[in-house]
Amino acid sequence: LEADGFTVVGEADDGVSGLAAARSMRPDLVLLDIGLPDIEGFDVARELAVDGPPPHVVLTSSREASSYGPRLAAGHALGFIPKDELSGAAIRALVDGG
Description:
Strand order of the largest sheet: 1-2-3
Helix content: 25-40%
Number of helices: 4
Order of helices and strands: HEHEHEH
Radius of gyration: 12 Å
């Protein structure tokens, strides 16, 4: 993502660490895997939304969007990008269009 002009300020291995990092760093954008080892990305996105102005959240997964049904539309995320389509251009298009 850095090669595509994004500044990466942190990474986390699980949802609890990701929430803590996002709350302390206050990034503009969070790229969030749905399938985290401790809590689902949907729950992390919901928690970020109650902390004041939330960052743009882009959900990602190795599974297709259809696997999640209406949960994607009902979530607190800007959108979803499958991991095999993940790129800086795809994120930028989602953010600019959202």
